[in-house]
Structure formats: structure tokens, C-alpha cells
Design goal:
Elements (H helix, E strand, L loop, with lengths): L12 H18 L6 H5 L9 H20 L24 H21 L6 E3 L11 E3 H27 L3 H9 L1 H4 L1
Antiparallel strand pairs: 1-2
């Protein structure tokens, strides 16, 4: 969904990248606008994805990348047994609680990115078969990757939401921004 991302102040690359990350977060957040917990958890296609599961996944994904960049242990790490729980709400988890958790992660990411000396600073990638051996990425790469990750899942969310009730991303932006009341 195309929305206007405000221009950064001249030379504010961090602000520009953070704004694009936030624009994609917004697309995912809007996908559950006005839905019940049951609707948000439903899977209206052959895919195993639900809107609430996507929200949980991207929140945990963002936390994981933050912890890698901070070179800290991820307190919400998943293993083979809990991997599927990263794509669905379990126990007392709800959409509002998931969004609240994500709000905390979002604030921490912004604070961290604004505090690093340079977007050229790097951190090591974990020893996983899909990453290059002894690979490192920059803070800039991290932000661009978050835009990529969230945009991919925002597209999934668009299809799921439209399958649920026919509402499109354009309609959800208009509702969230109050455009409907102005016409």
C-alpha cells in the first residue's frame, strides 16, 4: 500500500530509513483495523497465515534483528518446537497485547538506531546456513531489511484482509487517517 512517507530533513538518513520502516509497520497494523480476535486469527486461504499471526511474527522478527544488532541474547527466541507459535496467538495473547509488545520493540529500535555512532557500524550475522560464514551487516542494511520484511508481510496481510471482508488497504488507510469523515 502506497502511503506518503514524509521527506527527511536534509541529510537525515536515519530519519528517512526509520520513516520507511514505520510506513510498512503501519500497513501491517491497519490490517486488523475493526476486526474481532476471531477474524484476525482466521486463515481464509490455503496459507497458514493469519493477520494476528503476521503481527506476532513481525514483532518477534524485529526484536530478533534488534537483539542481533545489539549483540544481546533474544529473550523471545524460537526453537524448532515453538517455531509455529511465532505465527499464531497462543494462551492469553491478543491482538492489542501483540501490538503493545510491538510498540515496545519499535521504541527500542528507534532509540537504538538513533544512538549508534554510524549507520555504517556492523554486527555479526548468526552462524546459520542461509547467512554467509562470518557475515556482517550494517545498521543501514538492518533498516532496509526491515522495510523488505515488513513490506513482504504487508502484502500477505492485504490479501488476507481482502479475503476476509473485501476491505482493501486503500480503504483501511482512509479509515485510519480519517479521510472518510472529510468527504
Amino acid at each position: 500500500m502506497v502511503t506518503h512517507v514524509p521527506a527527511e530533513a536534509h541529510g537525515d538518513e536515519r530519519g528517512a530509513l526509520l520513516s520507511f520502516v514505520e510506513a510498512q509497520r503501519g500497513a501491517l497494523r491497519r490490517s486488523v483495523l475493526g476486526l474481532t480476535e476471531e477474524q484476525a486469527a482466521s486463515r481464509p486461504s490455503a496459507s497458514g497465515l493469519s493477520l494476528s499471526g503476521l503481527l506476532k511474527h513481525v514483532a518477534e522478527c524485529e526484536l530478533n534483528w534488534l537483539r542481533m544488532a545489539q549483540q544481546r541474547t533474544n529473550e523471545a527466541v524460537r526453537n524448532e518446537e515453538t517455531w509455529a507459535d511465532g505465527f499464531r496467538l497462543v494462551g492469553d495473547e491478543t491482538v492489542p497485547r501483540t501490538l503493545e509488545f510491538w510498540d515496545g520493540v519499535t521504541a527500542e529500535v528507534e532509540e537504538f538506531i538513533r544512538s549508534v555512532p554510524s549507520l555504517d557500524d556492523t554486527f555479526p550475522l548468526p552462524d546459520m546456513p542461509w547467512f554467509p560464514k562470518d557475515g556482517r551487516v550494517s545498521m543501514r542494511w538492518l533498516l532496509i531489511h526491515l522495510v523488505e520484511e515488513f513490506a513482504r508481510h504487508a502484502g500477505h496481510a492485504d490479501v488476507i484482509r481482502e479475503s476476509l471482508d473485501g476491505r482493501t488497504a486503500f480503504e483501511l488507510v482512509a479509515e485510519a487517517e480519517g479521510y472518510a469523515e472529510r468527504t
